[in-house]
């Protein structure tokens, strides 16, 4: 199935066409990635950047990224880390951190949302 193409009006800087003549946008819609409104930072880059900030700030090993969400002109990223290793690993203490990034990936703020034992069941990210 061929990709759908969108048509947008020409910008004033596009001087090779008559005013009002449409220009085809060659990017298929399914190739776009979410980006914050003010920058070209993609969701994947925002997640990796947030994870890197938490690892650097806490000195702890990351278990993974649990949320990447555009917010305002930046991003909110939630990262799960191992706070205390235990034997067996089902006794590990994990923590969920939230990172706020600006549109360029710079750290605005971070905070620990909660701590919990691995395998204790998902009680929601805020609770």
UniProtKB/TrEMBL annotation:
<feature type="region of interest" description="Disordered">
    <location>
        <begin position="1"/>
        <end position="54"/>
    </location>
</feature>
<feature type="compositionally biased region" description="Basic residues">
    <location>
        <begin position="1"/>
        <end position="10"/>
    </location>
</feature>
<protein>
    <submittedName>
        <fullName>Gas vesicle protein</fullName>
    </submittedName>
</protein>
<feature type="compositionally biased region" description="Acidic residues">
    <location>
        <begin position="15"/>
        <end position="32"/>
    </location>
</feature>
<dbReference type="Pfam" id="PF05800">
    <property type="entry name" value="GvpO"/>
</dbReference>
<feature type="compositionally biased region" description="Low complexity">
    <location>
        <begin position="36"/>
        <end position="50"/>
    </location>
</feature>
<dbReference type="InterPro" id="IPR008634">
    <property type="entry name" value="Gas-vesicle_GvpO"/>
</dbReference>
<dbReference type="GO" id="GO:0031412">
    <property type="term" value="P:gas vesicle organization"/>
</dbReference>
């Amino acid at each position: 199935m061929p990709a759908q193409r969108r048509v947008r009006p020409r910008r004033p800087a596009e001087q090779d066409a008559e005013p009002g003549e449409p220009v085809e946008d060659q990017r298929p819609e399914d190739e776009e990635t979410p980006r914050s409104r003010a920058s070209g930072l993609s969701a994947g880059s925002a997640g990796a950047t947030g994870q890197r900030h938490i690892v650097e700030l806490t000195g702890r090993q990351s278990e993974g990224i649990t949320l990447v969400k555009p917010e305002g002109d930046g991003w909110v990223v939630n990262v799960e880390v191992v706070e205390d290793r235990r034997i067996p690993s089902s006794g590990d203490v994990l923590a969920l951190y939230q990172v706020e990034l600006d549109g360029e990936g710079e750290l605005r703020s971070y905070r620990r949302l909660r701590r919990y034992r691995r395998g204790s069941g998902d009680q929601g990210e805020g609770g």
